[in-house]
């Protein structure tokens, strides 16, 4: 070998030290972004439509926007706003991602610039009661629902609401829109699913009341089914254009379903008072497993990232947590069903679900032994997705 290519022992040692230093300096890449710790629980949560940004509104009325990353140490707060006088209940990004709309217990709607966090518009008395939910219709229109069942449709370019209706008797917990942006579906504390035609600005109907508050609503099965979560831990299913009465229902072994977000056309995630985030398949109705948990604290709100890879959750532990959705998207429900009938524990669907140092770890085994092998109590045996 050419002696000029050989390194002396001293040079060799120096190179090893440099390699060691570079290894130490290399940032750790995580499966999910790090937890974000807030000073108060967040009741509103939304991902940016195209960028790796997460907005949160907390019970103190503060609004935050974070840039998140799987690279350790790179998740950070970009700005915060304290314009709301009371709890911020919901947040949503505009379609182009340039604006952030927030609603509050103080009855106000705020529109903020995403880049700088500056307040661009305030509608200070948007409702006569505290506002509980907001839904974007298009780049200009949005819908808000309040604590007394009132619903208002707004055009951001105009003063005053375009539509003002009060058909529900209790708070508007959640809202959803069909792909044509014609029908607005509302889940209410009065136990009814509401249907409103926002194109013609008229009320269509209320469903039969269920035994618990309806807390969430989502379109599933390519719009053929509507799923509603409830305070009693039951998911109610409605056929599209059959909103008067449920077509199916099934109860989770959960105290409640406080929030719900669709992940695919067949799968959704639910958050409950028991702190567990469950993955649920719709028709066949099965609890597929657990995605994650807030240790013994109620899950307040869930949101799915623009890429679909991460689920974010907010709990009463004042943490925003991220969960990897990769494994959930590959779940085969039939395989799970066979395993579950053997009485095995609820399947973990992320690396962080049911970790060994988790609050529930010492209790879970005893609880699972005490439960019936089937996690779901069903009313109907119809497992297909036909109308």
UniProtKB/TrEMBL annotation:
Q: Tell where it localizes.
A: Cytoplasm; Nucleus, Nucleolus
Each WD repeat occupies one of these ranges, namely: 299-333
Annotated keywords? Cytoplasm, Nucleus, Phosphoprotein, Repeat, rRNA processing, WD repeat
InterPro entries given for it? WD40/YVTN_repeat-like_dom_sf, WD40_repeat_CS, WD40_repeat_dom_sf, WD40_rpt, WDR55, WDR55/POC1
Where does the record place Basic and acidic residues bias? 370-379
Does the UniProt entry include the keyword Phosphoprotein? yes
Q: Which GO terms describe its cellular component?
A: cytoplasm; nucleolus; nucleoplasm
Known Pfam families for this protein?
WDR55
- Compositional bias of kind Acidic residues: 1-20
Q: Give the highest taxon in the source lineage.
A: Eukaryota
Q: Which GO terms describe its biological process?
A: rRNA processing
Ranges where the record places region Disordered: 1-33, 364-387
Identify its protein family. Belongs to the WD repeat WDR55 family.
Summary of the function given for this chain in its UniProt record: Nucleolar protein that acts as a modulator of rRNA synthesis. Plays a central role during organogenesis.
Q: What is this protein called?
A: WD repeat-containing protein 55
Organism, by scientific name, is Mus caroli (Ryukyu mouse)
Taxonomic placement: Eukaryota, Metazoa, Chordata, Craniata, Vertebrata
List the gene name: Wdr55
């Amino acid at each position: 070998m050419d002696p000029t290519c050989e390194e002396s022992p001293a040079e060799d040692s120096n190179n090893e030290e440099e390699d060691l230093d570079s290894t130490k300096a290399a940032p750790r890449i995580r499966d999910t972004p790090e937890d974000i710790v807030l000073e108060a629980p967040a009741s509103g949560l939304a991902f940016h439509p195209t960028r790796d940004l997460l907005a949160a509104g907390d019970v103190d009325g503060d609004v935050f926007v974070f840039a998140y990353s799987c690279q350790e140490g790179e998740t950070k707060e970009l700005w915060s706003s304290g314009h709301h006088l009371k709890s911020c209940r919901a947040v949503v990004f505009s379609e182009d991602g340039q604006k952030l709309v927030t609603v509050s217990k103080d009855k106000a709607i705020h529109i903020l610039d995403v880049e700088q966090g500056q307040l661009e518009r305030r509608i200070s008395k948007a409702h006569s009661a505290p506002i509980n939910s907001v839904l974007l219709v298009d780049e200009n229109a949005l819908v808000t629902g309040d604590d007394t069942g009132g619903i208002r449709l707004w055009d951001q370019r105009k003063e005053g609401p375009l539509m003002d209706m009060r058909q529900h008797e209790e708070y508007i917990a959640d809202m959803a829109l069909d792909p044509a942006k014609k029908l607005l579906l509302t889940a209410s504390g009065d136990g009814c699913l509401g249907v409103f035609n926002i194109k013609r600005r008229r009320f269509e109907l209320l469903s039969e009341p269920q035994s618990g508050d309806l807390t969430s609503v989502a379109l599933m099965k390519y719009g053929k089914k509507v799923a509603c979560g409830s305070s009693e831990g039951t998911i109610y299913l409605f056929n599209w254009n059959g909103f008067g009465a449920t077509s199916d229902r099934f109860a989770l072994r959960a105290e409640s379903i406080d929030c719900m977000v669709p992940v695919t056309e067949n799968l959704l995630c639910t958050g409950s008072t028991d702190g567990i985030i469950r993955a649920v398949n719709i028709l066949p109705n099965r609890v597929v497993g657990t995605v994650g948990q807030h240790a013994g604290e109620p899950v307040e709100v869930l949101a799915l990232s623009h890429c679909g890879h991460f689920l974010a959750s907010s709990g009463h532990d004042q943490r925003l947590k991220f969960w990897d959705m990769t494994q959930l998207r590959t779940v085969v429900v039939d395989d799970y069903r066979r395993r579950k009938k053997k009485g095995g524990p609820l399947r973990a669907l992320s690396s962080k679900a049911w970790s060994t140092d988790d609050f529930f770890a010492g209790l879970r085994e005893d609880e699972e032994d005490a439960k019936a092998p089937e996690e779901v109590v069903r009313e109907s045996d119809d497992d297909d997705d036909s109308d």
